[in-house]
Amino acid sequence: SSEDLVVLLTDERIAAYRASAKQPVYKLACADGSGLVGGPGWFVVEHGYDRFSAHTTKTGKLAWQGEGNVRAGDRTRIVVHHEARLHALSATTGKPQWHSPLALSDDHAFGVALTADAVFVANATTGQVHCLEAATGTVRWTIKQKCANTSLLVHAGLVWLIDHANRLTAI
Questions:
Q1: Which long-range contacts (CB under 8 A, 24 or more apart) does 42-50 make?
Q2: Is the model's pTM score more than 0.85?
Q3: What 3-state class would DSSP assign to 4?
Q4: Is residue 25 within 8 Å of 5, Cβ to Cβ?
Q5: How much is the average pLDDT of 71-79?
């Protein structure tokens, strides 16, 4: 099944492997691939800074394409930054699910992490962390939390980040 495939982005190509096989199940040329995000049954390849393509894991076939910078993905959605806003798209079809009301102008100054019911955004420029409703993009809450960088991790019900004093902080 496509669930047991591992997809890797290497020197100008994408290759999918089964854990038990030494040879790839398939290879795709990808001269401009710069990042890879995936979930069960799909993966997205970033092409440069503002374009990406979504593919099926089983065959590598192109499913759809989009504009923006891919920030995160999970089982059902991809969150991209485009035209100073976050947008959630269906991972399998590319159809828009929501557009965030948050204005995020500097694409390098924020990080995104997803859970089944929430999207967390750490904005290093404003010193705020936002929690959005995953289904709608509505802001649930915002707190002041100066971030040293934009790396976020959600684990055991807590949002982890590096604070302004370079300490690991849970909120």
A1: 42/91, 42/92, 43/7, 44/70, 44/73, 44/78, 44/91, 45/9, 45/14, 46/70, 49/107, 50/82
A2: no
A3: helix
A4: yes
A5: 87
